[in-house]
Design a protein that fits this description.
Helix content is about 5%, strand content about 35%. The protein has about 160 residues and is mainly beta. It has one domain: RNA polymerase II/Efflux pump adaptor protein, barrel-sandwich hybrid domain (OB fold (Dihydrolipoamide Acetyltransferase, E2P), Beta Barrel). A four-stranded antiparallel beta sheet has the order 1-8-6-3, with no helix packed on it. A hairpin with a 7-residue loop joins strand 10 and strand 11. The longest helix is centred in the middle third of the chain and has 9 residues.
Length: about 160
């Protein structure tokens, strides 16, 4: 059974797709991040509303999307049959080196996210991890965002 996956209410007029986090054939769990979009104030990961297997991807990096835009088509019946995608494991393996390239400590502050206060829902790195420029460090969620709001903090 084919299921259309649309952009949830993101509270903005239009945002740019900066990253597609899954590929055709990937098994996706409910709430797994599918794409990263960037608006004027923040980057956000758009989660899957349900489990399934990615059958088609209807967008490309650089495309502009808004609330309700069709981004993917899932095959719900194939969800149980598909093997888990190794991409997440590969990303963890790449981020695993305990030795940092530099021993120099740098403060990283939360950028202006347009809200008074948000909740940290996930910490994506640990002490000793090597961090690249533009690598995601934390996931935060505010009252106005029903999706994960991902702030990319840049290493200097």
């Amino acid at each position: 059974m084919a299921i259309e996956i649309n952009v949830p209410d993101i509270g903005s007029d239009e945002v740019e797709v900066t990253e597609i986090l899954v590929k055709v054939g990937d098994k996706v769990e409910a709430e797994q991040s599918l794409i990263t979009v960037e608006g004027d104030k923040a980057s956000m990961e758009v989660p899957s509303p349900q489990a399934g297997v990615v059958k088609e991807i209807k967008i490309s990096t650089g495309d502009k999307v808004n609330t309700g835009s069709l981004i993917m088509i899932f095959d719900a019946e194939g969800a149980a049959e598909a093997a888990p995608a190794p991409a997440a494991e590969e990303k963890k393996a790449e981020a695993a080196p305990a030795a940092a390239a530099s021993t120099e400590a740098k403060d990283v502050n939360v950028p202006d996210i347009g809200g008074d206060e948000v909740e940290v829902t996930e910490i994506l790195v640990k002490v000793g991890d090597k961090v690249e420029a533009e690598q995601s460090l934390i996931t935060v969620e505010g009252d106005k965002a029903p999706w994960k709001c991902l702030h990319r903090l840049r290493a200097w």
